[in-house]
Amino acid sequence: MTTEEAKAINVKALVDKKNNRVIFVESDEDFTDVLFSFLTMPMGTIIRLISNHNQPPTVGIGCMNNLYESIKNLDMQRFRTEACKTMLLCPRNDAAPQNKRLKLQIDDGELPSYFLCTTDCIFSGHKLLSLYPNVVCKCGRVMDRTMELLEKTVEKLGFDARDRGVFVKGLTQFIISDELQVKPSSVEASVSVLSKLGLMDCSAIEEYNYYNVDIGADEVTVSF
């Protein structure tokens, strides 16, 4: 694991000591962006990440784990092409360039590559493009020619170097409840969460461990 991958995000946690549970955490855009990135991930990626971080797997998503393992264990001869199995086990994430800017790298997938057929087919034939290698073109040949794309500039991606956020604006504080409800940090938002849980006795509530909790990639993966 690289230094970048090993980074942790520091959040401020409020706990209910009597029931030994976290009421909510307060964090800046770094942690909130990581949570929002879950919505960009294909289901196949989520299943793979859970399996990689839990050996043997202790968390499941219905029967999706069984479905994923079935595909993984099927002989390659059962698929139309090798690319078909790759598509199912390692689906591409359209938001991969944005997710690479997250402080915690949860999705270990590579940035999208693009594959084409031969030059003569591209200019005179089907003009197909694939995110996966070895897909069969309509002309019958394998699409194994890699197309190099210039990296998009910060301006083209809509990012400002002064704005640290990926999906939300930087320098913003958020409250995240145990149910993963995200709200801008405010007294009203805090009271709303407490009221919903029926925790209005402030004497039983205090901030946990010197006000700080470090959350890394392993802890975030459990949130799935």
Keywords:
disordered N terminus, alpha+beta, 224 residues, single chain
What this model shows, in words?
- There is one protein chain.
- The protein has 224 residues and is of the alpha+beta class.
- It has one domain (18-157, 178-222).
- The protein is 29% helix and 17% strand.
- The chain has helices at 29-37, 43-53, 64-73, 82-89, 96-99, 119-124, 187-197, 217-222; strands at 9-16, 21-27, 114-116, 135-136, 142-143, 145-147, 174-177, 182-184, 205-207, 213-215.
- A hairpin with a 5-residue loop joins strand 4 and strand 5.
- It is elongated, with a radius of gyration of 22 Å.
- Mean pLDDT is 78; it is low at 1-5.
Q: Which secondary structure elements does this structure contain, and how are they paired or packed?
A:
Blueprint: E1 9-16, E2 21-27, H1 29-37, H2 43-53, H3 64-73, H4 82-89, H5 96-99, E3 114-116, H6 119-124, E4 135-136, E5 142-143, E6 145-147, E7 174-177, E8 182-184, H7 187-197, E9 205-207, E10 213-215, H8 217-222
Q: How does the overall form come out from the CA principal axes?
A: elongated
Instruction: Give the end-to-end Cα distance, rounded to a whole number of Å.
Output: 21 Å
Number of strands: 10
Radius of gyration over alpha carbons? 22 Å
- Percent of residues in β-strands: 15-25%
Mean pLDDT: 78
Helix content: 25-40%
Q: Secondary-structure element order, as H and E? A: EEHHHHHEHEEEEEHEEH
Structural class: alpha+beta
